[in-house]
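Researcher: Let's do a round of design. I'm pasting the structure tokens now; please hold your answer until I've finished.
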């Protein structure tokens, strides 16, 4: 201050906003077969590697007297990921503990905070009290073959039905769906392939889009990673990447940051003696799974599963499945969308989903919302697994509505133009669909589709004859 002047002071308040902490609690039912638990551990390694930095992770396991906290809430950092996975129990147990007790403990760990409880179990968890008051979301991954005859009553429960033989790569798709649901991320699975191990060398190729080329990760899943002699990935410019990480049945190459878009390839070589040993075995031919994930930006194609709805509120068996396919905020047109539905008995059926606006069941054409009825085909009622495959149709690139498009007019979105968005592929495991009816005799219980374009071509008033035209709906 200048001598002789009065010094003035003022209180300054600075307000800043930080990202909310995402809290995850794993509830792991250890009453699994050894092979099943091995696949769960591998998928959990991928899950922990995909959790955003700054989130917290806890681990709870049920026992006969209640629950054991294997890991108190711990901050996830890049340097801690392997250590966190090391706290996953290495071996399963014979007896099944109290799952609901473990979930109660998980809620206590979250305290007053919002959070996410991920349950891997053979049973559907039924809570005696509500969890919505603290904004807790629950994700229940069912891994047994028994039918679940009743729907989960808790509205915040997302149920994913698998089987005890579910692949680690399929479990990884479930965990990706959970992370995207919680974080609003655009983590995408852009490629999936299965190779039978009948020869020591095999290769493949996949396409990386310009808007989905960040943190490209190529993962091999195999019964024993020590069978792999070499693993190489080449990007679209021919640049080689041979720096792989071996971890408990997984071989991973991860390229952090932006990568070159275009057609990529991979080459795998196995030790000859491991192939010979497999050939001498009387077990089924082993195989290796290859999947590719990447992080998309604001212009990437995203696929979001929408909660299934009953086409008739009086009949919960007539379920409609929905998938929203967007590029940024614009709907994608002309994509090929199929759903593989797996019943509680293990039977599967493939359903084609359409954005046709015919009203059965799709309401509006061109809005990027692809829909289909799920037929009653399983011999058991209960939760049906749902896996979506979304690709640009052969040779014909999907288009999108221009930003100037006008949304109106009931059965079709009006648009001014379509824009070529090129080649893409997405693989998504969505929350399961509950169907309360069974079909043990494998009858055709699906009614014929409605005729949506019936029109009069000509009339003859003297003979009272009408000429009608319509498309066969299938």
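Researcher: That's everything. Go ahead.
Model: Designed sequence:
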């Amino acid at each position: 201050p200048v001598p002789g002047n009065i010094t003035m002071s003022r209180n300054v308040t600075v307000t800043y906003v930080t990202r909310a902490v995402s809290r995850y609690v794993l509830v792991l039912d250890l009453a699994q077969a050894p092979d099943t638990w091995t696949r769960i551990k591998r998928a959990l390694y991928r899950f922990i590697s995909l959790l955003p930095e700054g989130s917290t992770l806890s681990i709870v396991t049920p026992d006969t007297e209640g629950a054991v906290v294997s890991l108190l809430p711990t901050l996830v950092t890049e340097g801690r990921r392997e250590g966190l996975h090391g706290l996953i129990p290495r071996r399963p147990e014979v007896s099944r503990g109290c799952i609901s007790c473990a979930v109660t403990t998980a809620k206590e760990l979250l305290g007053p905070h919002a959070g996410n409880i991920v349950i891997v179990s053979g049973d559907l968890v039924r809570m005696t009290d509500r969890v919505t008051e603290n904004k807790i979301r629950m994700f229940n991954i069912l891994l047994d073959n028994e039918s679940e005859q009743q729907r989960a009553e808790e509205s915040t429960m997302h149920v994913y039905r698998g089987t005890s033989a579910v692949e680690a790569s399929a479990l990884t798709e479930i965990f990706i769906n959970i992370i995207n649901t919680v974080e609003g991320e655009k983590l995408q699975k852009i490629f999936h392939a299965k190779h039978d191990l009948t020869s020591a060398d095999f290769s493949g190729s996949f396409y990386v889009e310009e808007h989905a080329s960040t943190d490209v990760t190529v993962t091999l899943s195999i019964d024993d990673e020590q069978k792999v002699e070499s693993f190489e990935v080449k990007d679209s410019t021919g640049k080689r990447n041979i720096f792989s990480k071996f971890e408990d049945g997984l071989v991973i190459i991860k390229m952090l940051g932006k990568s070159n878009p275009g057609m990529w390839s991979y080459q795998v070589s196995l030790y000859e003696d491991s192939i010979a040993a497999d050939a001498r075995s009387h077990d089924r031919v082993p195989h290796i799974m290859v999947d590719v994930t990447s992080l998309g930006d604001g212009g990437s194609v995203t696929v979001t599963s929408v909660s299934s709805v009953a086409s008739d509120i009086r009949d919960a068996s007539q379920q409609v499945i929905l998938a929203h396919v967007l590029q940024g905020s614009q709907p994608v047109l002309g994509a090929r969308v199929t759903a593989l539905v797996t019943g509680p008995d293990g039977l599967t059926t493939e359903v084609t989903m359409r954005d046709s606006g015919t009203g059965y069941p799709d309401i509006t054409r061109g809005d990027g919302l692809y829909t289909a009825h799920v037929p009653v085909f399983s011999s058991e009622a209960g939760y049906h697994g749902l896996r979506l495959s979304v690709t640009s149709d052969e040779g014909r690139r999907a288009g999108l509505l221009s930003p100037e498009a006008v949304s109106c007019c009931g059965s079709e979105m009006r648009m001014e133009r379509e824009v070529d968005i090129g080649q893409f592929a997405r693989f998504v495991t969505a929350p399961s669909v509950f169907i309360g009816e069974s079909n043990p005799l494998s009858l055709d219980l699906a009614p014929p589709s409605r005729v949506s374009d019936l029109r009069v071509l000509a009339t003859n008033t003297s003979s009272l004859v009408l000429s009608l035209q319509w498309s066969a709906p299938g």
